[in-house]
Design a protein that fits this description.
By secondary structure, the chain is an alpha/beta fold. The chain has 2 domains: 4-34 and 105-235, 3-Layer(aba) Sandwich (Rossmann fold), CATH 3.40.50.1000; 35-103, Putative phosphatase, domain 2 (DNA polymerase, domain 1, Orthogonal Bundle). Helices cover 45% and strands 10% of the residues. The radius of gyration is 18 Å and the shape is globular.
Length: 240
C-alpha cells in the first residue's frame, strides 16, 4: 500500500497548517480480530506462573503494553513479581500468542479502508503497543508492507495510555497531532488520543461498549472498519 503520495500531501504547506485529516490506527482489535487471542495467551501465561485470572480482568487491560498490563493485573491480585518474572510472563505470552496468531484475520473492511484512504491521498499509520515481531504476522494479513508507516513498542519509551506512540505516528506522517484521527477499540487508545489532543474514534470490535468508548473521548463509534469506511464523510473525508 504505497504511502509516498499520501505522506507528501500530509505535510502542512509553507506559511500555514495542513487541513487534511490523517489517520492513526491501533492494530489489535481495531484492524485485526486478535483481542481474544491475546486474552487467551495472557491467561495461559499467568496460569503457567501459578496465577489464575478470569478472562474479563485481562480483557479490560488489552491495549496497554505487556509490562504495564502485567503490573496492573498483579496489583489487582495483591501479588508481586520480580522484573525477571514479569519478563518471563511477557515471553510466555509471546510464545502462546505465536501459536494462536495463525487464526487471526483482518476485521471486515480493514484492508478496504486502508486502500480507500490511500486512494484518497489521506495519510495513515498503524500504532500498536505490540513489539514488531508480534505484530508482523497480522500486518502481513492486512497487506501492510515495509514502506508503510508503523509504530511499534520498541520505538517509544512510554506506550499507551501515554500519548507518545501517537506523537511518533503523526511525526512519521509529517503532520501535527491535532490533524489526526486516532482510531482504536479500547479505552486506552482513546485516553492516549485525548492526552495527545487528537480526534478520538472508537471501534466496537475489541469488546468495549459504545458508552465506555464515548466516555473515554470517542467523537464517533463504529461497528467495525467496514462501517467506518461507509461513513467516512462523518469525519469530513470525501472525494475532492
Amino acid at each position: 500500500m504505497p504511502q509516498e503520495k499520501a505522506n507528501k500531501e500530509a505535510k502542512a504547506p509553507e506559511g500555514g497548517r495542513g487541513s487534511r485529516l490523517a489517520f492513526l490506527f491501533d492494530l489489535d482489535g481495531t484492524l485485526v480480530d486478535s483481542v481474544y487471542r491475546h486474552v487467551q495467551a495472557w491467561q495461559e501465561a499467568f496460569l503457567r506462573m501459578d496465577l489464575v485470572l478470569a478472562g474479563w480482568r485481562i480483557h479490560r487491560r488489552i491495549g496497554m503494553s505487556g509490562g504495564m498490563l502485567v503490573r496492573a493485573l498483579l496489583r489487582e491480585q495483591g501479588r508481586q513479581m520480580s522484573a525477571e518474572e514479569i519478563k518471563r510472563l511477557e515471553d510466555l505470552h509471546g510464545e502462546v500468542y505465536g501459536r494462536l496468531v495463525g487464526d487471526v484475520k483482518p476485521l471486515p473492511g480493514a484492508r478496504e479502508l486502508l486502500d480507500e484512504l490511500s486512494r484518497l491521498g489521506r495519510p495513515w499509520a498503524i500504532v500498536t503497543s505490540s513489539k514488531r515481531e508480534k505484530a508482523e504476522p497480522v500486518l502481513r494479513t492486512l497487506g501492510v508492507g515495509p514502506d508503510d508507516p508503523v509504530v511499534t513498542r520498541g520505538e517509544v519509551s512510554r506506550t499507551k495510555p501515554e500519548p507518545d506512540p501517537y506523537y511518533v505516528g503523526a511525526q512519521k506522517l509529517g503532520v501535527q497531532i491535532d490533524e489526526c484521527a486516532v482510531v482504536g477499540d479500547s479505552v486506552w487508545d482513546l485516553l492516549s488520543a485525548r492526552r495527545a489532543r487528537a480526534l478520538g474514534v472508537g471501534m466496537l470490535t475489541g469488546g468495549c461498549g459504545r458508552d465506555e468508548l464515548e466516555r473515554a473521548g470517542a467523537y464517533r463509534v463504529y461497528d467495525d472498519p467496514a462501517n467506518l469506511l461507509a461513513r467516512l464523510d462523518e469525519l469530513g473525508v470525501q472525494e475532492e
